[in-house]
Amino acid sequence: MSWINSLMARSFGRKPKTTPQPGFVFSPAPAAREDTINKKTAASTAAFPRFQSTAGDQLSPRLNDRFAAARIKLRSAFTPSQPITDKRMFAGRIDVLTTLIRSLEDQRVHVILYGERGIGKTSLVHVLTQAAEEARYIVVYCSCGAGSNFDEIFRAVAADVPLLFHRGFAPTADAAEKGGTLADLLPPGPLSPRLVADLFAKLTGTRLLVVLDEFDVCESPDFRRNIAELIKNLSDRSIRTQLVIAGVAADLTELVQHIPSIRRNIFALQVPKMSAAEISHLVENGEEISGVTFDKAALDYIVFVANGSPYFASLLSHHSGLTAIDNGRVKVTLDDVSTAVDQALAEFRGRISKHSQAQIDQAAKSGVRHVLGVMAGAALFNSGRFDGRDVDALYPSAANAATFKATIDELAAKHVLLEVHEDEYGRGYRFSEEAVLPYLWILAAQKRFLENRKTADVRLEVPKPGDKIAVEKPQLQDKTAQPAITTGRAAGQS
């Protein structure tokens, strides 16, 4: 019955009882048993995951890790989930920053920054505000929310401006010496653009810069209309207050309403994607800060997959740097970046709906996922949109281009990852889910980089019109047969 007892013990999570046999001693000596327990406890403690640094960003005294300091520096050098707030870590975009400063200082206009998510708008805004503060501007940064309203925002702005700079109060006035602010002069009722402009018209001895970040998140049309009216009031009266507005948008009118009335009072800039040289600069800047270096192949891979996105570049540099450190190195190799790409793909896939995941997997079986990925790369900085010109740039022959266009039309008609999009630029296509874009692009970039590396022909950018590259031909099935890609509902999705 001993084998039954053993089986029962395993089933219920207990160790089977062992019956001592004559002539054998099963229990170790007390000292030996204690030494074994201590060794097991020490091994268990060493293997258990721990934070590598304290909450004060100091090295943990419990660790004996010679790479712990490099890990802390790397986390400060590459911050994919946070904007750049220190100009020492700012890379590229010098021309853009110069243009913004001159617009504010020389033209005295209000600035609107817009562009795709992850393109670096907030980092630009933070570095711009640092430059303004160095020039003795009073800078008030506000991150807008869905429920932001005009009264709330500008009472907060007024509370950050000391009465010292109000024309009606001498520096030695009692209210100024007690730390009073412009907010003390506001009436209790709702604020209007004209009332706020009247208050800011009394500023003297300084200039006020009001930064409204994440402006696209605000849902109130009244808030947007009041901002447009305030810009007009400030400009018409040459008041020493300027606005910097930033948000996700495909074009200017999508971000700010009533544009015609204030067009001459604003400088609008669509933040472009970074060049390959600027992405390289971003990584090299991180090398100087962290002490972690990237070999040529690793840098090429990051630049290629980043496709002009500072977010992608920082994400891959962060992951690949940590991978190298975990392996006892401060030099990042191609294999480390490959691991980082796999980690990024896992992150992005987790943000995609199950419905779209199923469609992407089916697209891989039909041979169109890779080409859709290249289209996603083109659409990443175009509000998720691409059109026939992007397809023509990809295919060397008109016949292949026509075949793929037919496939795209079929996918869009069935709402498989795509939908038809008509706008002022004509007929185009949009990916139906924003989170699909980075995932499809990184999949395609991973495949193309590794394939091109074999032939020493690494391209650093998405194909442009006139490029001739070899791509997979999509496998179109007979019209009477079962479609190669079906909708999620047909595939068993609810």
Task: Explain what this protein looks like in three dimensions.
By secondary structure, the protein is α/β, with parallel strands linked by helices. It is 47% helix and 10% strand. It folds into three domains: 93-270, Rossmann fold (3-Layer(aba) Sandwich); 276-349, Orthogonal Bundle (Helicase, Ruva Protein, domain 3), CATH 1.10.8; 354-454, Orthogonal Bundle (Arc Repressor Mutant, subunit A), CATH 1.10.10. It has helices at 2-11, 30-47, 68-77, 94-105, 121-134, 150-159, 174-177, 193-200, 221-236, 252-255, 276-290, 296-306, 310-326, 334-349, 354-366, 369-379, 388-394, 398-413, 436-454; strands at residues 110-115, 138-143, 208-213, 241-248, 266-270, 293-294, 331-332, 385-387, 418-423, 426-431.
